[in-house]
Design goal:
Layout (H helix, E strand, L loop, with lengths): L2 H10 L11 H26 L8 H19 L7 H6 L1 E5 L7 H16 L3 H4 L10 H6 L1 E5 L1
Antiparallel strand pairs: 1-2
């Protein structure tokens, strides 16, 4: 077998997705950045529409909530595959094969975070102990968080 045959044989093999998974603390750093980015407009909305940051009225809570949902779902399913916080720390969200996630997966991941939080934050902590560093909401949505 010649060198050219070996090269051609390698090209015929499907490429395996072998990512470097993003760890728990890197994900925490991204979330803290995102919290600041989302918190500023929410603070403005709460103060402008009525009430205050500490006691927002119902309308400002709904608008702030929609803003947060839109931020995570849109950005994680976009071409960038990451919120601004994730981009800042160099991580992205993918499906199990390394592809861009759908809006449905991003929504499932977002709302799965509620479940991760309701069980004493154990769903979030799972990212520090699972083989692929997946939190519960990642497992629920069939997603991975990996280094870019």
């Amino acid at each position: 077998m010649t060198d050219q045959d070996l090269i051609l044989d390698e090209l015929d093999q499907p490429q395996r997705f072998e990512p470097e998974y993003a760890g728990f603390w890197l994900r925490v750093a991204a979330y803290l950045i995102d919290s600041i980015i989302i918190g500023i407009p929410m603070y403005i909305i709460y103060g402008t529409i009525g009430g205050s940051f500490l006691e927002p009225n119902a309308l400002s809570q709904v608008i702030g909530g929609v803003l947060g949902v839109f931020y995570f779902i849109y950005l994680e399913s976009s071409e960038k595959q990451a919120t601004f916080g994730k981009q800042a720390v160099g991580i992205i969200v993918t499906d199990m094969d390394g592809n861009r996630i759908t809006g449905g997966q991003a929504a499932g991941r977002y709302f799965g975070k509620i479940v991760s939080g309701l069980i004493l934050l154990i769903g979030f902590m799972m990212a520090g102990f699972t083989d692929k560093k997946q939190a519960l909401h990642d497992i629920m949505a069939n997603t991975l968080v990996v280094r870019r």
